[in-house]
């Protein structure tokens, strides 16, 4: 599927309206699922870090300690991938007006395709580590030699760790973005092989990776500004720390939600604005209806008007009043 030149990119504002509408309609389930997700991740991190702490304090040989650390990283990334699968499924249910349950966060643990995708993303994570080390080690050595820096200095050590973490984050994002739609493709084509799912995700994302990342940043921009503003106000007015800390926590959960929502919202919006909904439904034999197109797309897919009737009423809640690309989806057939 080489459709890079033929696909029109969806509009940021319309997609953001879809995200806001979905969160507002399911505000309790949305935030509770984000809390559950973060608590599970914290628990897994704790369970994996404890053995590492004991191993570091023991007399385990260096090589064995490194292998044990790698094993813990594999477990962390694999479980994170399964949770991500479930969270994207949960967000998809909300934007498609399906019955959404918080327990869907654990949906990936019962799906073979989720295990395959999670294994693949775990491999990508270690590839990102390898690439970041290949770039950062020569860079760090050059900087330390040029400016006569010493890692023993607390400030130098802190900035080095932050810099290495940012490099790893950048590589991890760049490597994973082409396959961001893999979960939604797999949910609609459960019988498809991992290769087919990844190929289709890559085809949809080809030529619009920057546009997708731009939407993700656009959707959380306001919330990030609020978080930064609260931090500065807290430093200036410590008496307001209690209230502002609560607001910061709320905004952090909102950022997490919007980032997860951005994947299915963009995916269905891309299909809708290009009039691919009916064709996509037929190819994947999807059990649920896909979101309604905008005015132009509805002319090309008039047969879907009855199925998208619910969407038109849902889209009335949005700021734009349009039934845009993936604004909301019809009830499950």
Plain-language structure description:
- The chain has 333 residues and is mainly α.
- It is 71% helix and 0% strand.
- It has helices at 12-25, 27-57, 62-95, 112-147, 154-176, 182-188, 194-205, 209-236, 241-273, 277-284, 295-300, 309-314.
- α1 crosses α9 (241-273) and α3 crosses α9 (241-273).
- Residues 285-333 have low confidence and may be disordered.
Q: What shape does the CA trace take? A: globular
What's the total count of β strands?
0
Query: Please, how many helices?
Result: 12
Q: List low-confidence stretches.
A: 285-333
The share of residues in extended strands comes to under 5%
Mean pLDDT over the residues:
83
How big is the Rg?
A: 22 Å
Helix content: over 70%
H/E series: HHHHHHHHHHHH
Largest sheet: none
Short précis:
The chain has 333 residues and is mostly helical.
Question: How do the helices and strands line up, and which of them pair or pack?
Answer:
Layout: H1 12-25, H2 27-57, H3 62-95, H4 112-147, H5 154-176, H6 182-188, H7 194-205, H8 209-236, H9 241-273, H10 277-284, H11 295-300, H12 309-314
Descriptive keywords:
333 residues; mainly alpha; 12 helices
């Amino acid at each position: 599927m080489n459709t890079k030149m033929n696909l029109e990119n969806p509009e940021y504002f319309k997609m953001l309206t879809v995200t806001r509408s979905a969160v507002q309609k399911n505000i309790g389930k949305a935030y509770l699922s984000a809390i559950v997700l973060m608590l599970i991740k914290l628990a897994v991190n704790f369970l994996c870090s404890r053995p590492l702490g004991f191993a570091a304090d023991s007399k385990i040989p260096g090589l064995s300690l490194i292998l044990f650390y790698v094993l813990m990283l594999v477990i962390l990334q694999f479980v994170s991938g399964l949770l991500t699968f479930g969270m994207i499924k949960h967000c998809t249910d909300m934007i498609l007006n399906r019955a959404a349950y918080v327990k869907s966060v654990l949906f990936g643990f019962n799906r073979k395709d989720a295990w395959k995708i999670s294994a693949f993303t775990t491999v990508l994570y270690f590839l990102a580590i390898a690439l970041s080390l290949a770039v950062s080690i020569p860079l760090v050595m050059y900087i330390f030699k040029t400016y006569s820096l010493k890692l023993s200095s607390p400030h130098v050590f802190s900035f080095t760790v932050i810099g290495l973490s940012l490099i790893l984050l950048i590589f991890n994002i760049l490597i994973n973005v082409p396959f961001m739609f893999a979960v939604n493709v797999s949910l609609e084509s459960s019988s498809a092989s991992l290769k087919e799912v990844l190929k289709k995700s890559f085809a949809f994302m080809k030529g619009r990776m920057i546009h997708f990342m731009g939407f993700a940043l656009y959707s959380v921009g306001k919330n990030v500004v609020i978080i930064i503003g609260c931090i500065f106000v807290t430093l200036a007015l410590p008496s307001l720390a209690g209230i502002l800390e609560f607001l910061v926590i709320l905004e952090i959960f909102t950022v997490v939600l919007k980032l997860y929502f951005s994947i299915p919202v963009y995916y269905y919006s891309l299909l809708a604005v290009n009039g691919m909904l009916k064709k996509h439904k037929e190819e994947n034999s999807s059990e649920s209806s896909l979101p309604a197109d905008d005015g132009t797309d509805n002319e090309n897919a008039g047969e879907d008007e009855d199925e998208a009737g619910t969407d038109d009423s849902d889209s009335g809640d949005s700021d734009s009043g349009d039934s845009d690309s993936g604004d909301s989806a019809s009830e499950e057939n």
